[in-house]
Amino acid sequence: MARGSISNTSTANLVLFLGLVCLTTVVRSKEWVVGDDKGWISHIEHLWPGGRPIHGGDVLVFKYASSVHNVVEVNKAGYDSCSPGAGARTYSSGNDRITLPSGTSYFICSFPGHCKNGMKISVTAQ
Questions:
Q1: Rounded to an integer, what distance in angstroms lies between the CA atom of residue 24 and that of residue 2?
Q2: CA 40, 27, 62: angle at the middle one, nearest 5?
Q3: How many helices and strands (H and E) does the chain possess?
Q4: DSSP secondary structure letters along 8-42
Q5: CA-CA distance, 88 to 83, in Å (whole number)?
Q6: pLDDT tens readout for residues 95-108
Q7: How far apart, in Å, are the Cα atoms of 78 and each of 17, 20, 25, 88?
Q8: pLDDT digits (tens, 9 = 90+) for 22-69
Q9: How many CA atoms lie within 13 A of 24 on its CB side?
């Protein structure tokens, strides 16, 4: 009987440990409002993310007037050229939530002239 108690206690401890690991992973993700209280605006590329400790799994929230802006997830070439290119994903709700993978992600506004005026960001998530 004592052996069964040890085994059950070990199993219970393992389940508890794994549950805490999962909870820690879920709690770790954070929401970031791009541009803070200013939102998704021109000239943001020099202001944001500005050294924020962003991690894979964190969520970027883009807030903007959808009649005059959008958010397009692009690759590095699209970011540098301000051109969405084939396969780029466009968001247009005015309150877009994008979960970041680890690595660098690139976002632009594809309305004419906006990206060239700094309405673009690159975000590196740890």
A1: 33
A2: 10
A3: 2, 7
A4: HHHHHHHHHHHHHHHHHHHHH--EEETTGGG-S-T
A5: 9
A6: 999 999 999 999 99
A7: 44, 40, 32, 9
A8: 444 455 789 999 999 999 999 998 889 888 999 999 999 999 999 999
A9: 6
Residue 90 · residue 72 · CB < 8 Å = yes
Secondary structure (3-state) at 46: helix
Strands 71-74 and 89-91: antiparallel
Tell me the residue type at 16. Answer: L
First to last CA, the chain: 48
Q: Residue 100: which residues within 8 A CB-CB, separation 6 or more?
A: 54, 55, 56, 57, 58, 59, 60, 123, 125
What percent of the residues of the chain are helix, what percent strand, and what percent coil, each to the nearest 5? 35, 25, 40
| Structure token digits, residue 68 | 């005059």
- State pTM to two decimals: 0.77
